[in-house]
């Protein structure tokens, strides 16, 4: 699968990310592949295991930014929702949203692994 097919497979816009990176397809692919090694998702899981809401806030905010830069809008939106809920004091209610982040993250990772 090429990078454009990857973005189609996760229902995201290759055109938007390509525009962000000045049409450089190799650069887009480089950063998408680097996402596999990013520690943020693991940090979110560790924070949830410890029920450390300050750390959940920090790590979901980081995921929101990374997802935004790569135009993973579904992951970005779920991360933003978690950030907003924690900031609003909805700590216990945020855990199902973390589950949504996990599902979206896994979908993205599975598709990245299919890149040529």
TrEMBL record:
<feature type="domain" description="HPt">
    <location>
        <begin position="20"/>
        <end position="116"/>
    </location>
</feature>
<dbReference type="Pfam" id="PF01627">
    <property type="entry name" value="Hpt"/>
</dbReference>
<keyword id="KW-0597">Phosphoprotein</keyword>
<feature type="modified residue" description="Phosphohistidine">
    <location>
        <position position="61"/>
    </location>
</feature>
<dbReference type="InterPro" id="IPR036641">
    <property type="entry name" value="HPT_dom_sf"/>
</dbReference>
<dbReference type="GO" id="GO:0000160">
    <property type="term" value="P:phosphorelay signal transduction system"/>
</dbReference>
<dbReference type="InterPro" id="IPR008207">
    <property type="entry name" value="Sig_transdc_His_kin_Hpt_dom"/>
</dbReference>
<protein>
    <submittedName>
        <fullName>Hpt domain</fullName>
    </submittedName>
</protein>
């Amino acid at each position: 699968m090429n990078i454009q097919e990857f973005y189609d497979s996760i229902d995201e816009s290759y055109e938007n990310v390509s525009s962000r990176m000045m049409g450089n397809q190799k650069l887009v692919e480089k950063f998408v592949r680097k996402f596999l090694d990013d520690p943020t998702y693991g940090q979110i899981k560790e924070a949830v295991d410890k029920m450390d809401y300050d750390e959940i806030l920090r790590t979901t905010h980081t995921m929101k930014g990374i997802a935004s830069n790569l135009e993973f809008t579904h992951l970005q939106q779920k991360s933003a929702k978690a950030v907003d809920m924690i900031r609003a004091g909805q700590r216990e209610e945020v855990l199902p949203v973390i589950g949504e982040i996990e599902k979206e993250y896994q979908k993205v990772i599975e598709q990245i692994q299919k890149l040529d």
